[in-house]
Design a protein that fits this description.
The chain is mostly helical. The protein has a single domain, classed as MetI-like fold (Orthogonal Bundle). The chain contains 15 helices and no strands. α3 packs across α15. The radius of gyration is 28 Å and the shape is globular.
Length: 329
Amino acid sequence: MAKSKESPASDSEVKIKVKTRISWKSSFKKYWQLYLLLLVPIVYFIIFKYGPMEYIITAFKKYKMNTSLWDMDWAMDKKKNTDIFFYFKQAFQDNQFLRALKNTVVLNLLDLIVGFPAPIIFALILNELVFTKFKKVVQTIAYMPHFLSWVIIYSLALRIFATDDGLLNLLINKFGGTSIPFLGEDKWWVATYVFLGVWQNFGWGSIVYLAAIAGINTELYEAASVDGAGRFSKMWHITLPGIKPTIVVLLIMNLGNILGGGFDRPFAMQNSLVLDSAEVISTYVYKKGVLAAQYSLTTAVGLFQSLVGVFFLLMANFISRKLGERGIW
């Protein structure tokens, strides 16, 4: 009896790859409302972010107010030789800039070490609260400082931390202690600066982590409860691993801002007594650029600051991917 012919390949061996390609026209026709919404931030970035980037070349030229950007002379050293990196060299020969650079790194690292874990811890604590109404009240109180400007926050700080008539020092004196110069001595000013930064941001920063916690599968907690796991054990083995990708992404973004930082916080809090610790790159650029009109110098400083920030961002993302975590891209 003749054997039946077998098919050249069984069903399990045959893999059919179906590629569906949607043209951009059909995609736009279907989701045109979303594309229109996306148009707003694109236009914003083109006008206010990418458009002014041509003025980066000011860092390599001798700025003149009455001359167009491309007609300006290239930067020259004291011997009148063309040296496009002249203003970069001038910055690194300026002790004031070196001090601002050091202070920026130190203050941002302290913010990262002290301030980065604060919203994570706060989110974990809020997640464990049982009473919903009490939880909402705590959240609202913690969020409120985020909406205060640093001028208002520093005004409050003066009333609380002032050496002579501050509320805290009045209490210390009442109990026989000595007044502490929270705002008038370098080490105390740095501690106050970091504390106020954490106080303003930890509540608002916890929103992202609370959203990440809400996305964790509740069946994991139920299974852990059946196995006899306590609250701390579930927090350590389920909640923290569940929000780990979010923590990594935000950590990478914070590392990219290691030479950045806002202007309003250090500018509002600095005074002549603590200028050695309070001068940062943003206030240095303001004083040299806006007040002293050294635009080429401050553009060079800003470009250096941005390049270092991009380097830290790329390195942190690269290390994160190498360690098996999900980076920004």
